[in-house]
Structures are given as structure tokens and as C-alpha cells.
Amino acid sequence: MSAARRTPQHRIAETVAGELRDRILAGADRLPTQDQLVTEFGVSYPSVREALRILETEGLVTVRRGSVGGAEVHRPDESSAAYHLGLALQGAAVPLGDLAAGLQLLEPLCVAEVARRTDRLKVVVPVLTRNVDASAEAVADGAAFTRIAREFHDLVVEYTPNATVRHVVGSLVALWSAQEE
């Protein structure tokens, strides 16, 4: 929908949704009730409902109806990013092998960054060593071994110091893990 064709009510709803989105991303666990939002923003109930619908479409809230109703907040994480990325990759007909190749390109970058951490010997190496030991113990159990080996990759990404790389690669890892299940 072009900006010129948007109704005033829709523009109001987008403005309210933007304010609420900022609160969610800043860490809000709950949103006010519809009555409170109508009062706070000085807008109509349909505008508030449309704002919540926008946030629901973005995956930031789930609106429950009825006596236990309200907006349940969902902060974005690697899994939610992976879901949307997965839809985009599916829509572009990107094969699963391409995702695997992408991870093979990016995981060594994470390993290099983890290796540069000054606290790696105290913080990272003990955790990775425990994981390797656990995988050695589980080698006879294919499912357990696969799960523990996958956790090794998750740990490397988790300990990557660059937050952007950690979240991007974490999203790809979550997407790959969902394909493995």
C-alpha cells in the first residue's frame, strides 16, 4: 500500500505500533491494556487493534482474546529471525545445501573471533572441552552424539564476541538445526 493511499486510521495505527515496537525492543515484558493504550495515545479502539495486528504480524506479540486476553510480548531472538529468514530463503528457492555452505563459510569466522578472546582459556576452552568429552562418551548413541556435536557449533557461535556476527550466524544455526529435526 503506497503512503498516499493509506488511511489516516492506518497511519495512526502504524505510529502507535512504532511506539509499542520501541518499548518491546527496549525490554518491555508487557503492554498496557487496550483501554490504557486508547487513553495513553488518545486514539480509537480500531487504531489500537490495528497497531496490535501489525505487531502480531511482525511476531512481536500474540493477542489473546476473551477474559484472559491481552498482548503477550515476544522479544525477537535468533529463532524468530531464523523463521523469517527461512521464509525468505524458501521464497527464493534457496536449496538447503546453500544454507550449509553459508554456515561453512561463517563458522570459521566465529572460531577465529573466539580464538582472539583474551578470556578464552578461562571461559571458552573449559566449556568446549566438556562438550567434546560429552560427545566422545555419546559416540555409540547416534542421536545423542549428533545433538551434542551440534551444541559444539552453537557454543562457538554463542561465545563469538561480535554481537552482530553472533546474531546473524546464530539465526542461520537455528535455521539449520530446525532442518535437522
TrEMBL record:
Keyword match Thylakoid: no
PANTHER family: TRANSCRIPTIONAL REGULATOR, GNTR FAMILY, UXU OPERON TRANSCRIPTIONAL REGULATOR
Family matches, as CDD domains: WHTH_GntR
Gene Ontology MF: a single term: DNA-binding transcription factor activity
PROSITE patterns xrefs: HTH_GNTR
The organism of origin for this protein: Mycolicibacterium diernhoferi
Protein name per UniProt: GntR family transcriptional regulator
Superkingdom in the source lineage: Bacteria
Sequence ranges assigned to domain HTH gntR-type in this UniProt record: 6-76
Keywords: DNA-binding, Transcription, Transcription regulation
